[in-house]
User: Fold Tryptophan 2,3-dioxygenase from Marine Group III euryarchaeote CG-Epi1.
Amino acid sequence: MSPTYSEYLRLEELLKLQTGVEGETRKISNDELHFILVHQNFELWFKLVINELKCTSDILSSDYVEETKLPQAVHHMERVIETFKLMSQQWRVMETLEPQDFLNFRDELGTASGFESFQMREMEALMGSKWIDGKLVGKPESGKSLYDATCDWLERTPIQGSVYASEGDEKQVDKFISDYLSAHKKLYPDTNEEVVSFFDEDKSLRRRRAGLVFIESYRELPLLSWPRKLISTLIELEQAMILWRTSHARMVERMIGRRIGTGGSSGVDYLDMTTKYRVFVDLWAVRSILIKKDALPTLKNKEFYEFRGE
Ligand code: HEM
Assistant:
């Protein structure tokens, strides 16, 4: 038998959960109901985001990512991005609570705080470790984060037609890097050192960064169109998260000023600091070292990057 709308969505159970921790024994105000509903809404969106991030990371975690799988990864990412954009707007609803009206029930929270949102921490771990003051913080406990999966995938980028780990690959990659450095030096002699140090790393990081520069530089090649789209969505996701964090901080500033948080942090100062975190550091960094198309090293093995039939 087909379920009813309410059965399918388990609405009866869902709509009983807005009472506060004491259940029906304490009558909550209209403002507190609003406060609980807004939080629960966010947590439901977090659930969606976690699921989509896992799907993306699963696709990118395989040792060989088929070209046909990339559109699916991008699709998952686009859903996450739209959800974050929507969540950034959702603070507006929270802001209809007046600061004094919040104080009327703030004590009920005790030390409870968004700080303790385990779904938030799971989202962060799934994205990848954050770089704070030059240090990696918060490695995921198990499985590959999106960041780690992306790094491994980038490292395998075919560069000038040279396939990862094939014979002579290291030489080809070195040649590409030195050609790129010369081309960059001609245009920007004053900032060339920055680019030299970008590549001056161990073999694996060097190849990964060369792969990233290669995709960003020869983006019009058919075989690179999905990889570059994926990189754009990773940047857009991080941007959307930063904007979401920023709009939360501004809402908090409006609501509690410079008071400390219920979780015990410094409040707005702490939240503003979290907007400085970056996960995809190289994806951001590469933007300051790109060069215009007609100055790029000559592309080799162009046919390698054409679409191929079965
Ligand atoms: C009146 C509304 C709100 C106020 C005044 C507020 C305030 C704060 C403050 C001060 C913090 C810093 C930690 C602490 O010391 O407590 C924080 C963290 C956090 N809040 Fe809110 N918040 C509000 C609404 C929300 C809502 C609706 C959500 C949605 C789930 C949310 C999610 C979070 C998260 C995830 C963190 C942890 C951020 C991090 O550590 O990166 N907050 N909040």
Q: What stands out?
A: Residues 29-99+149-305 form a domain with the Methane Monooxygenase Hydroxylase; Chain G, domain 1 fold (CATH 1.20.58.480). Residues 38-39, 42-43, 94, 102, 113-115, 117, 120, 248, 252, 255-256, 261-265, 267, 270-271, 274 surround protoporphyrin IX containing FE (CB under 6 Å).
